[in-house]
Amino acid sequence: MTSATVYDLATKDLDPPLAVVDLAAFDANADDLHRRAAGKPIRVVSKSVRCRALLERVLAMPGFEGLMCYSLAEAIWHVEQGTTDDVVVAYPTADHDALRRLAASDQARASITIMVDSPEHLDLVDAALGHGHPEIRVCLELDASWRPVPGIHVGTRRSPIFTPKQAATFARQVVARPGFNLVGVMAYEGQIAGLGDAAGRRVNRLVVGWMQRRSAAELARRRGAAVREVREVTNLEFVNGGGTGSIESTGADAVVTEIAAGSGLIGPTLFDAYTRFKPRPAALFALPVVRRPTRKIATLYSGGYIASGPTGPSRQPTPYLPTGLKFLGFEGAGEVQSPVTGRAARTLQLGDRVWLRHAKAGELAERFTHYHLVLGDRVERTVPTYRGEHQNFG
Q: Cα dist. 388→50, 52, 162, 367 in Å?
């Protein structure tokens, strides 16, 4: 029995478009992340999942501790729902209402750490809450990009804190401010964790691999020095680093106490381009065939679920099952229709399903209110995504 037949059989009583999560693949991916982390705890990146039932599932597995959320409002919601009592918000917040909700809740303040990288972030919190506000847990973000020579920046544009001296200076500023407790340091190496080393031509792969090795070595030295200087100022509860794509190099850094990961649970197409690991595709969505404009083309309903990031073919969804399908180059995946061609297209009939994979892990959950959790040839249960729980964290 082919995988397509298994998913079709499991969802035979459901109308597409629909989305499934293969629990066997999801659990296998979790086991592989745990293995790769080699004993260091993994903080689950919520934006890569965006489904409370799946987050609760992985947090119950060995090796996974706490969430890394992308929104303060999201973090408060998880604490209120009892998902976890340990949340780091990975991005600074300017949400005054969420800050007031955080300050008003003893439970939330004890559970949630927000991200800061400048005195202006502290000023913003003071402006939202007023002076004399309850103590807020904060994490200092160190920029983890690679800057081999002046003027060259490889990696995501994040914190202005780059050097150990800058980290220590800001740590002293935080400690001197009433109402703040500096408990952590984070450094996300996007140029390693989020950039596949197996994509493109051989010369491109060699350049990416060389860059990532050099960057990892430089970051280990700089992050180690920064953490040592910050610890001269205050005690730290955690040092967070990494992502699904850099678990091995991040975990090898002695100062890192926990690793952030989430996309590896889902296995989107952007993570096919890595040599260090091969996650199984866990989240799929099915679209129905609604037209046969020619003998060689089948048209699917909707499907234009384009991933964030630099636009291009890599951000489109990818036809997965049946094998041998591809989008038309001049039309691609569209808002209301997505024509596919290839040998398998010739045998597709109206009402048949085509299963696709999204380019990124969590963004599929913004398109569907529910995930059908499939185990073998049956739906074990159906659970809401964030959207299905009427949650939209922007």
A: 10, 10, 40, 10
Residue 39: which residues within 8 A CB-CB, separation 6 or more? none
Q: Say how far apart CA 55 and CA 52 lie, in whole Å.
A: 5
Rounded Cα distance between 162 and 155, Å, is: 13
213 vs 267: CA distance, rounded Å: 23
Strands 283-294 and 18-22: antiparallel
Helices (H) and strands (E) in the chain, counts: 12, 17
Both tokens of residue 122?
Answer: 């502290």
3-state secondary structure 102-118: HHHCHHHHHHEEEEECC
Which residue stretches of 234-345 are H helix? Answer: 247-251, 263-266
SS3 117: coil
Q: Is the pLDDT of residue 2 over 60?
A: no
CB burial of residue 221 (10 Å; 0-12, 13-18, 19+): exposed
Question: What is the tens place of the pLDDT at every residue in 331-381?
Answer: 999 999 999 999 999 999 999 999 999 999 999 999 999 999 999 999 999
Question: 291, 299, 285, 296: which is closest to 345 by C-alpha?
Answer: 296
Structure tokens at 288: 């129905």
CB 50 within 8 A of CB 362: yes
Residue type, 27: D
